## 1
Amino acid sequence: MKNLVLLGGGYGNMRVLLRLLPNNLPEDIQITLIDRTPFHSLKTEFYALAAGTVPDQEVRVSYPEHERLKMVYGEVVEINCADKVVVLSDETRIPYDDVIIGLGCEDKYHDVPGADEFTYSIQTIGRSRETFNKLCGLPSGSVVGIVGAGLSGIELASELRESRPDLGIKLFDRSPRILRDFPERLSNFVKKWFDKHNVDVVSNSNITKVEPKVLHNHEETIAVDAVVWTAGIQPVAPVRNLNTETDSIGRVVLSQYHSLPDDENVYVVGDCAALPYAPSAQVAEEQAEQIVQVLQARWKGKELPEKMPEIKLKGFLGSLGKKQGFAYLADRTVTGRIARLMKSGVLWMYKWHNG
């Protein structure tokens, strides 16, 4: 029996499972899913877990059950494409016929001294729990610095403001305005929310060093009691160590079929893939749809299409606490309560479709 190995139970590989199980998996194929945790984690909601506004169980979804789905819990340390085997931290070796790498990303610190040692993270559910323990354990009047004003930083800052109105919050943005790549109306709405709720947005920032309870922004030193880093990502180490072509930020360059150009049995989905889009759950799911189509064609001995269709994204949704939000959909900006309800609805639908 052939073994399809899924590395990581993130959004991409969950979509693969949803499409193949229970009735679309050939009889001679089994699936092995390798992940650190016994559940799928809703990474897009880790900001709320870290801020303390949702409990742990709200960011979990159970994996599907099937007689030909084998679960293996562990840490992937090596992907040996030559031998077609995956190596775990306990030295377990798992052979594959096809493998889909969906191991996600980790924080990229841009060689800023002290950033890896003295900051907290929301990249994994485990690290988000640690961040929650730190932030929600701070005494009243403490100051939290959030480095990076992308979607994760914005949502964490707003959610933390609702969770802990007694804290000072500083959001450091390298750009002259929030969400500078999107319409100014969207930026202004988010900035006004932060102004109204006493979140200090530090524009044109450049964090050059992090020390215990101190951030260095340009030549200025800023006292903080905790720092959360949301200022960039990179593929995890086992992916960075693959002997293959990568883009400028270490993501794996792929063929149009989402496999390595010289190895059709190795696919990469999600944050590790070099695509012309910002990493997101939506991109990973759209990629996974095409990977399943490619796998099914190859399993049936059919020819692949000469050209795969272009991935088309619907836009993005963001929250500002539990009552306000913002969205950019089909080149249109939506703000306020409607945008927040839209995001809540998308989350509800995702949980419903995934059991």
## 2
Amino acid sequence: MKLNIVEYPDKRLRQKSTDVEVFDKKLHDFLDAMYPVMMDTNGIGLAAIQVAKPIRALILNIPDDDGEQPYENLLEIINPIITHKSGETVYQEGCLSVPKFYEDISRYENIVINYQDRDGNTKTLEADGLLSIAIQHEIDHLEGILFIDKLSYSRRKKFEKEYKRMLKEKK
């Protein structure tokens, strides 16, 4: 299965993802295909919608203290629901669907989510730090929200101008 990252301003990124209801080999194959796409593009998270599949599934692999992302640390999160959020933190985020742009984004510092794994088992995860930020970023994708949507009006205008210039330079 060959997957490609959908890039801004593609309208598919604005699509709201639907719940996963069938946990079968087809889902497992899709999740397995997402992993190399994320790793080959130096990502730490990838939502299904970013590879053109509008389902509530995402994967994460936060680098360890050595900057490595061993496969054993991979999190597959399906149908996530944030059940608790507290604190506030600001982190410079980037996105595989909005390449080469980084902005300071305000997020909750601590979250608790309920989700399902690839087999449909219900799980709970408490997250803080980069894991919390990455989960919130990827859940936003499932809702059709990009990190650039969280920018102030003036920063968003500056982003749009820079992005158009970058696209012209690509051609």
